[in-house]
């Protein structure tokens, strides 16, 4: 097979960072090419160069044999290259048709005015390709999550009519916020896409990459470190190539099993969040790790947010350390010793532009001051430095801006914001590993495990079954907002993954 | 690992019908809310009309309706321009300065009692061009130098206000061009040309907002600018476009004021800015962008003008007028955005 | 940069940071130099003294307005609050004597706190809320004073104090310094102060970290209102009569002072010292223009250009992704 797209010695330099260092890559026709690497290894930068969002500092890109250089995504689209973004790229208050063609050179406008009927007819054709039955003039706001994903795909497929020959379709971590069901249907689309295009597929999850790709490239520190053909490798080898260390045993086993007679820390009774959760009851003992899992929309996240007091309304009883409590806002929860690490790290957990230290001391820093009124910068800094060391947070200094750290280190800094609290008894983690690479994930798990051993109770919502089974003492499975099954003593007798999945669906 | 096995148990057949149903329900609920949301300002306008009509019989009369429309014309022109900027999530504070500057430019370039110039319609063109240029400059500084629009336009407010005062000749120029002053004086069906002009502008603006790329992409920028940039759209150009429209229409408002008062006044724009923004917001155009539109803003203008008119008609203390308006602004905006309240919503 | 300096100013890491940090001070010095060049007489103690006396109301408004801006909010009602409270004091003095002053300051605190609290409860933008209260306060000031000036005799102790001098220094200016020092200490050494910055950097993340955002917003707007009311008292002490619109021409200069000092309108960046520098810049421009015999119009143009330059230089664009 001949190369559709080839990169030769591509480098990309940002101020102070060499993001890509001399990358060679080849994409053949009718091929799904997997691309894996840790956070910061340069995968996304590479995608953005191919998709025209960045321009390479050095090197050459050839498409169908002739050298190309894209100044913008629009130019890349003209050449038949489409990028499906990590986060969804649809604009809510525009119609489906407008979204489909916003990034393409079209003739649907004359003198700056849209010709609606022509645009909608063209959109209809694209929507038929992905078998989506919605009117092209529906605002995207009114679509369900799965429908939007299909529109997203149709957006890329609409390049076909504009371009002669094969397309290049880039998927930048499309699965990280999808449920297993949605991932499955995405994979069906990718396989269909292979008939008329070549695909580059990025994911953190090695099993996914292996399931869908014909060939895999491994990136590390901006270099292309390996190329493997499907069937000649396995997740363990890929993992090793990526992080350079063995995967087995990366998460330590629990040293002391949780005490069965430990006092109850949290008792949730008949928790109901309108439209999300119905009559959920469970207990959390001190030092226990309770994992919640369910497909998207099962309500696991809403349970966490209700405990922390950020759901707009909920009913039911919550008992904390033996007495009934009514948590209506985060500061109330913090006062009780409850912490929460949100799934949306960038929006809800990090104060962008502020230092690591400021981010870590915002909640409990005043505990280290004088009489609850005055702060002691010296003492809280010492405590923050202490946790930076304990959690092995890689930062040039405590005063470094948090948004300039890698995702894993950001997450650890967010976690230590709560660990600074001497009164913290319960920590709620909502998808704590989202966007983390496997190395950072293992570090985080070890930290959580150690905290539980010291008596902190943990409630967490996981992304994969693997992490549920590795970390939890108790697993609660939610389905359609109700508790469908619980598995006790997970570390002693591991439930089979089939059992858990059966309870989820 | 586990994920592959997880996929093997694809549950789509069982899970999807239920979710689909919920989605449909939510959609109807959504539409219902949508109707309520856009009807809110109209309902409050009608309520206000009913209350005032009950309080004073003179309120519902052709003459008073004409008076309301007449005094709504200039604020409407400002609000239409402002809408294009607000919908993108930015703000333009320079309205008073720009309108004053356009007013002065026009009154010293058209046939007048002080200067020797008599450019006729050319004076209108120059004044409009000044508004357009300043608007475009606002947009350029904001979009390309990445300075907050609030600051850029605050600075431009002061600069244009100063320029207007510096251009003001020693004596107040009386506008002698009878055709121009006639715009506000001659009435057809009891309404001056200003009202017809405002209505025509609103119509054009509405088409631009709904059909033109400028309008549609403007909404998209207000909803999520980062995404629009990712799509390869030249966002900065649309920003400059919106500010240019706003500047041009604000300049027009200054020109219309000159027609109304018949003299050049370096403070002609005073009182256009805050009521203009308030009108947009009362009508349901969010300061955060992405929602609302020209028609919303027009309803907002009518609410404010009717309120003023009604207060005068009912003999309320004129000194309290500002205070009542202030309260109405807060209450109207709170009511029209009440359904958006969330614990995790951020409003700055 | 030497390691010692780097440790003292951890936020300064590059030449750009240094320029951003020093930009407002450089602008102030340039303006000051220009004023000296125009009118060397300004350097005389008497002239400076008079200048500080005149500048105090504007400076206190700048300092007060800084706190809402640090949250990423804006308080458009401050100048109207100043006029309103001056009117109320003038009306209450015949009844209550000196007690009217603390009473009105207390009332301003309450009104400001209510304003901040309502912004959170009603979830309406502070721009709209304070636009509404701007109308409310100026309307009430007009109504209560019947749109006329209210005279005030001497003999009201707090006002006499504000209008007087200690060792030749205007007490009003000393009051500005005292408020600035108190608020700076509050900002640096207490939880409220730090929470204000956290709120400004990211309201949602701060809320999710347990910052009590309604409380913080109420505090910031209460401080803004009290400072505005204090500014109103200073004006009153200078003129000995109150007028319903006496401070309304301070609305824009106060905002100019805040942003010319380098406090970002998006919140979380800047501070009270920055505002003092920015406020002094605004004062110098006014004074300079007056001394040079330039019309008020030229002053406005100068203000506008200074804002553009100061903000263009001081904005750290890496901290804000999308500029609105």
Describe the structure.
- The complex is a heterotrimer of chains A (505), B (348) and C (324).
- By secondary structure, chain A is of the alpha/beta class.
- Chain A folds into 2 domains: 3-243, P-loop containing nucleotide triphosphate hydrolases (Rossmann fold), CATH 3.40.50; 264-504, P-loop containing nucleotide triphosphate hydrolases (Rossmann fold), CATH 3.40.50.
- In chain A, 32% of the residues lie in helices and 26% in strands.
- In chain A, the strands form 5 sheets. Chain A has a 6-stranded mixed beta sheet, with helices on both faces. A 6-stranded mixed beta sheet of chain A has the order 18-19-20-15-21-22, with helices on both faces. In chain A, strands 2-1-4-5 form a 4-stranded antiparallel beta sheet, covered by helices on one side.
- In chain A, a hairpin with a 3-residue loop joins strand 13 (264-273) and strand 14.
- By secondary structure, chain B is mainly α.
- Helix content of chain B is 73%, strand content 1%.
- Chain B contains 13 helices and 2 strands; from the N terminus they run αααααααββαααααα.
- In chain B, strands 1-2 form a two-stranded antiparallel ribbon.
- The longest helix of chain B is centred in the N-terminal third of the chain and has 44 residues, at 12-55.
- Chain C has 324 residues and is mainly α.
- Chain C has one domain: ABC transporter involved in vitamin B12 uptake, BtuC.
- Helix content of chain C is 73%, strand content 2%.
- In chain C, helix 3 (45-70) packs across helix 13 (272-291) and helix 7 (157-163) packs across helix 11.
- The longest helix of chain C has 27 residues, at 213-239.
- Chain C starts with a helix and ends in a 10-residue tail after the last helix.
- The model of chain C has no long low-confidence stretch (mean pLDDT 87).
- The interface between B and C is large, with 58 and 62 residues.
């Amino acid at each position: 097979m001949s190369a559709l797209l080839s990169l030769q010695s591509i480098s990309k330099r940002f101020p102070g960072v060499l993001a890509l260092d001399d990358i060679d890559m080849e994409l053949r026709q009718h091929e799904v090419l997997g691309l894996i690497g840790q956070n910061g290894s340069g995968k996304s930068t590479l995608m953005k160069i191919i998709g025209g969002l960045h321009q390479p500092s050095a090197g050459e890109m050839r498409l169908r044999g002739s050298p190309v250089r894209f100044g913008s995504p629009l130019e890349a689209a003209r050449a038949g290259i489409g990028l499906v973004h990590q986060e969804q790229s649809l604009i809510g208050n525009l119609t489906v048709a407008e979204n489909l063609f916003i990034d393409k050179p079209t003739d649907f406008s004359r003198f700056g005015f849209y010709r609606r009927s022509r645009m909608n007819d063209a959109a209809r054709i694209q929507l038929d390709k992905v078998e989506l039955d919605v009117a092209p003039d529906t605002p995207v706001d009114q679509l369900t999550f799965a429908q939007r994903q299909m529109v997203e795909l149709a957006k890329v497929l609409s390049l076909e009519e504009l371009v002669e020959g094969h397309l290049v379709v880039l998927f930048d971590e499309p699965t990280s916020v999808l449920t297993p069901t949605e991932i499955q249907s995405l994979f069906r689309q990718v396989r269909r896409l292979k008939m008329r295009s070549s695909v580059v597929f990025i994911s953190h999850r090695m099993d996914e990459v292996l399931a869908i790709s014909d060939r895999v490239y491994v990136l590390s520190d901006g270099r292309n470190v390996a190329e493997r053909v499907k069937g000649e490798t396995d997740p363990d080898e890929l993992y090793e190539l990526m992080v350079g260390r063995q995967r087995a045993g990366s998460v330590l086993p629990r040293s002391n099993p949780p005490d069965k007679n430990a006092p109850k820390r949290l008792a949730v009774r008949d928790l109901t969040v309108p439209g999300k959760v119905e009559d959920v009851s469970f207990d959390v003992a001190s030092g226990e790790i309770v994992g919640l899992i369910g497909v998207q929309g099962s309500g696991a996240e809403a349970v966490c947010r209700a405990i922390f007091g950020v759901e707009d309304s909920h009913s039911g009883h919550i008992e904390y350390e033996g007495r009934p409590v009514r948590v209506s806002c985060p500061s109330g929860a913090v006062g009780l010793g409850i912490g929460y690490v949100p799934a949306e790290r960038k929006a809800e957990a990090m104060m962008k532009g502020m230092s690591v230290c400021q981010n870590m001391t915002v909640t409990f820093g005043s505990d280290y001051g004088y009489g609850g009124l005055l702060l002691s910068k010296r003492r809280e800094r010492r405590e923050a430095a202490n946790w930076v060391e304990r959690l092995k947070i890689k930062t040039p200094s405590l005063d470094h801006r948090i948004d300039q750290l890698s995702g894993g280190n950001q997450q650890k800094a967010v976690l230590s914001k709560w660990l600074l609290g001497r009164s913290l008894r319960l920590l709620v983690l909502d998808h704590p590993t989202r966007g983390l690479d496997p190395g950072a994930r293992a570090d985080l798990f070890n930290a959580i495990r150690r905290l539980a051993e010291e008596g902190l109770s943990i409630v967490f919502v996981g992304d994969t079954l693997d992490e549920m089974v590795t970390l939890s003492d108790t697993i609660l499975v939610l389905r359609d907002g109700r508790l469908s099954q619980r598995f006790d003593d997970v570390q002693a007798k591991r439930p089979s993954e089939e059992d858990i999945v059966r309870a989820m669906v | 690992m586990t994920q592959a096995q997880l996929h093997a148990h694809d549950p789509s057949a069982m899970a999807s019908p239920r979710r689909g149903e919920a989605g449909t329900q939510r959609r109807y609920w959504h539409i219902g809310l949508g109707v309520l949301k856009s009807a809110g300002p109209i309902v409050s306008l009608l309520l206000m009309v009913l209350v005032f009509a009950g309080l004073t019989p003179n309120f519902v009369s052709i003459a008073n309706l004409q008076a309301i429309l007449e005094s709504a014309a200039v604020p409407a022109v400002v609000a239409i321009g402002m809408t294009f900027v607000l919908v993108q999530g930015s703000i333009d504070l320079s309205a008073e300065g720009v309108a004053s500057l356009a007013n002065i430019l026009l009154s010293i370039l058209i046939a007048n009692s002080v200067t020797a110039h008599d450019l006729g319609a050319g004076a209108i063109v120059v004044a409009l061009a000044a508004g357009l240029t300043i608007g475009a400059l606002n947009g350029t500084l904001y979009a390309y130098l990445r300075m907050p629009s609030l600051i850029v336009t605050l600075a431009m407010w002061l600069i244009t206000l100063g320029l207007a005062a510096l251009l003001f000749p020693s004596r107040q120029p009386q506008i002698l061009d009878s055709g121009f002053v006639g715009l506000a004086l001659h009435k057809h069906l009891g309404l001056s040309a200003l009202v017809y002009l405002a209505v025509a502008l609103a119509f054009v603006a509405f088409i631009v907002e709904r059909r033109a790329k400028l309008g549609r992409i403007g909404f998209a920028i207000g909803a999520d600018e980062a995404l629009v940039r990712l799509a390869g759209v030249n966002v900065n150009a649309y920003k400059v476009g919106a500010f240019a429209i706003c500047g041009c229409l604000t300049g027009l408002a200054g020109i219309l004021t000159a027609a109304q008062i018949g003299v050049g006044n370096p403070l002609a724009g005073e009182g256009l800015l805050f009521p203009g923004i308030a009108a947009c917001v009362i009508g349901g155009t969010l300061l955060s962008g992405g929602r609302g539109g020209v028609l919303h803003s027009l309803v907002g203008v009518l609410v404010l003008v009717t309120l003023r008119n009604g207060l005068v008609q009912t003999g309320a203390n004129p000194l309290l007028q500002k205070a009542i308006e202030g309260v109405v602004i807060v209450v109207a905006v709170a009511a029209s955005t009440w359904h958006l309240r969330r614990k995790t919503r951020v409003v700055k | 940069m030497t390691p010692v300096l780097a440790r003292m100013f951890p936020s300064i890491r590059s030449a750009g940071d240094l320029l951003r940090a020093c930009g407002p001070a450089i602008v102030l010095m340039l303006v000051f130099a220009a004023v000296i060049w125009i009118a060397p007489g300004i350097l005389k103690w008497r002239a400076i003294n008079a200048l500080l006396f005149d500048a105090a109301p504007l400076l206190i408004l700048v300092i007060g307005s800084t706190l809402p801006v640090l949250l990423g909010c804006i308080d458009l009602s401050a100048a109207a609050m100043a006029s309103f409270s001056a009117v109320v004091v003038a009306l209450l003095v015949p009844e209550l004597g000196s007690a009217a002053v603390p009473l009105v300051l207390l009332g301003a605190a309450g009104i400001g706190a209510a304003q901040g609290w309502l912004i959170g409860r009603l979830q309406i933008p502070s721009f709209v809320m304070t636009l509404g209260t701007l109308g409310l306060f100026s309307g009430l000031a007009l109504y209560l004073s019947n749109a006329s000036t209210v005279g005030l005799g001497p003999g009201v102790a707090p006002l006499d104090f504000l209008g007087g001098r200690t060792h030749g220094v205007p007490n009003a200016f000393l009051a500005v310094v005292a408020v600035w020092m108190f608020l700076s200490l509050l900002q640096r050494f207490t939880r409220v102060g730090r929470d204000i910055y956290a709120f400004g950097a990211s309201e949602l993340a701060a809320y999710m970290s347990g910052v009590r955002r309604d409380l913080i917003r109420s505090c910031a707007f209460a401080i803004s209102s009290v400072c505005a009311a204090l500014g109103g008292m200073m004006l009153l002490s200078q003129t000995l009569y109150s007028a319903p619109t006496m401070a309304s021409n301070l609305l824009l200069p106060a905002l100019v002072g805040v942003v010319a000092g380098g406090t970002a309108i998006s919140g979380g960046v800047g501070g009270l010292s920055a505002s003092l520098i920015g406020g002094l810049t605004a004062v110098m421009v006014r004074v300079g223009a007056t001394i040079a015999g330039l019309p008020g119009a030229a002053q406005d143009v100068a203000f506008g250009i200074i804002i553009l330059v100061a903000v263009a230089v001081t904005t750290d664009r890496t901290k804000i992704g999308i500029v609105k």
